[in-house]
Design goal:
Blueprint lengths: L36 H9 L8 E4 L7 E2 L3 E2 L9 E2 L3 E4 L13 E9 L6 H4 L8 E5 L11 E4 L9 E4 L9 E2 L10 E3 L7 H9 L4 E5 L3 E6 L4 E2 L11 E2 L2 H12 L2 E4 L7 H11 L5 E5 L9 H5 L4 E7 L2 E2 L3 E7 L4 E6 L3 H20 L9 E5 L3 E2 L5 E10 L5 E5 L8 H6 L2 E5 L5 E2 L4 E6 L4
Parallel strand pairs: 6-7, 13-16, 13-17, 14-15, 17-21, 19-24, 22-25
Antiparallel strand pairs: 1-12, 2-12, 3-11, 4-10, 5-7, 5-8, 6-9, 18-20, 20-21, 22-28, 23-27, 24-25, 24-26, 26-28
This protein binds ligand LQZAQKY5 and molybdate ion.
């Protein structure tokens, strides 16, 4: 017992520190320490979330991902109308007409597009022996069941000679024959193109719910890099191609791109510059500095900015990969390898799907097409191979593909000459000429 029966004050318990947030459990590795491309993609995509949707005017929505289902409230056409300038007639009245023995009809009115069907006749039906001059898009008057084009008549004003018959229904565009009220027009997850905008406008819709363009910051690192347009000061410098190519690719995928100037291999500068970018980024993409070198700057500084993961993926090119969630807002960052082809192939495999997921556009991954290999293709065992290729489709629809350039991941020229990536799965070592293989046609949407 203590003095004066007072209990000794219990020491305050030490507050348990919040555990530092970590990335979800990364995918497993093979015996050589490599992850599969599919696992790496699924894992990184699991940390990317669709951006919240907004209502946008049609022209602001071009290229964006629709996040509602669009059904039509109207019929298209909204009324039976004529596809030709001519005369609305009763087909049976001129069934016996020929060039030599034309049938004469009385012209009882005239309807232009935008005028009501009653403009010609009032409330009466077109009667036997009557015709109405009618212009393309104008509504078909009641009683008429065909339109004879001007070219098959003498274009008469008060009466018209018809030089041949027309079948019932000829040149009439029926109400609802394009779109019926209630039809499903565009599904959620569709990236809106120019034709979709036309259809939406055509059914009277002026605003849609879409996800905004993801803001993608693209950064290249490397002290050897020089901005295109500047002089190379010595012969061991190179021009930065990656940040331009990645910025262009991100833009084509639908992003709002911010390309940041080059960052030299100075840790403090790189850290500060990347942190400064986070306020305007939904996604950050870097290139270079992630493999085993002494100056792999990204590998060095990024752990100070958040939760990051560097790994090796069973793919060629593109083996070294980095991913993280950085800054207070845990902005996703893809840290791509510096070799230009590796950066491009990594973009196609991981970044483009992430941009599409942010936009709510499906499918996330490019859809592979089947093509016949025109020469033998080889791959190292145990890695997914992404050869550059040129795919063409002949007149009969047969798609063939040939490799372009070698497999070196520095080969920018052959990358430019290619229009596809040839996909050779991890367990495939050879594709013989004439065998089929899957390709990503990278110039397609
Ligand atoms: N000992 C090892 N060395 C390397 C390995 C490895 O596993 N062990 N992997 C190789 C592979 S594969 C790749 S890919 C590269 C990736 O390297 P980094 O991401 O660290 O990239 P850097 O070293 O910065 O650059 C590589 C290469 O690319 C050129 N480069 C970089 N940035 C640009 C740019 N913006 N525009 C044009 N060219 C760029 C750079 O000059 C280098 O030539 O590592 C291998 N090494
Ligand atoms: O895998 Mo590196 O990405 O080939 O050149």
């Amino acid at each position: 017992m203590g003095l004066f029966r007072r209990k000794k004050a219990e020491p305050e318990p030490e507050p348990t520190p919040e555990p530092a947030p970590t990335l979800p459990e990364p995918p497993g590795q093979d015996e050589r320490g490599l992850r599969s491309v599919e696992d790496q993609r699924a894992w990184t995509l699991s940390m990317i979330h669709e951006l919240p949707p907004f209502g946008m005017q049609l022209l602001d929505a071009v290229g964006l991902g629709l996040c509602e289902e669009i059904r039509s409230d109207v019929n298209l056409p909204g009324f039976d109308n004529t596809a030709m300038d001519g005369y609305a007639v009763r087909a049976q009245d001129i069934a016996a007409a020929t060039a030599d023995a034309p049938i004469v009809l009385e012209v009882v009115g005239r309807i232009a597009a935008g005028e009501p069907a009653t403009a010609g006749l009032g409330e009466a039906d077109l009667a036997e022996g009557q015709a109405i001059r009618i212009m393309t898009g104008a509504p078909i008057p009641s009683g008429a069941d065909a339109v004879i084009p001007f070219e098959r008549t003498d274009r008469g004003e008060d009466e018209v000679r018809c030089f041949g018959p027309v079948p019932e229904g000829a040149n009439i565009r029926r109400r609802g024959s394009d779109v019926e009220e209630g039809d499903l027009l565009i599904t959620e997850g569709t990236r809106l193109n120019d034709r979709a905008i036309g259809l939406l406008a055509g059914v009277g819709i002026d605003q849609v719910m879409v996800r905004p363009r993801p803001r993608v910051v693209v950064i290249a690192t490397g002290s050897e890099l020089v901005e295109p347009g500047m002089d190379l000061e010595d012969d061991h410098q190179i021009y930065d191609s990656n940040s331009w190519m990645l910025a262009a690719a991100a833009g084509a995928a639908g992003a709002q791109v911010y390309r940041v100037g080059l960052l030299a291999d100075d840790p403090e500068q790189v850290k500060q510059s990347i942190s400064d970018q986070l306020v305007r980024a939904d996604l950050v993409v870097t290139s270079g500095g992630i493999s085993e070198g002494d100056h792999d700057i990204i590998k060095e500084v990024m752990p100070e900015l958040g939760m990051v993961d560097f790994s090796r993926v069973a793919m060629q090119p593109g083996k070294p990969q980095g991913f993280g969630l950085i800054g207070e807002d845990e902005i996703p960052v893809f840290m791509l390898p510096g070799n230009p082809v590796s950066a491009y192939v990594s973009f196609e495999n991981f970044v483009r799907p992430a941009i599409r997921k942010l936009m709510g556009v499906e499918p996330h991954l490019r859809e592979p097409r089947r093509a016949i290999a025109s020469t033998v293709l080889r791959s190292k065992p145990g890695v997914a191979q992404f050869h550059r290729g040129f795919v063409r489709t002949d007149m009969s629809g047969r798609r063939t593909v040939e490799p372009v350039g070698g497999s070196g991941s520095y080969l920018l020229d052959s990358l430019q000459r290619s229009n596809c990536l040839i996909l050779m799965e991890r367990d495939v070592e050879m594709i013989a000429a004439g065998q089929s293989v899957m390709v990503w046609a990278v110039d397609e949407e």
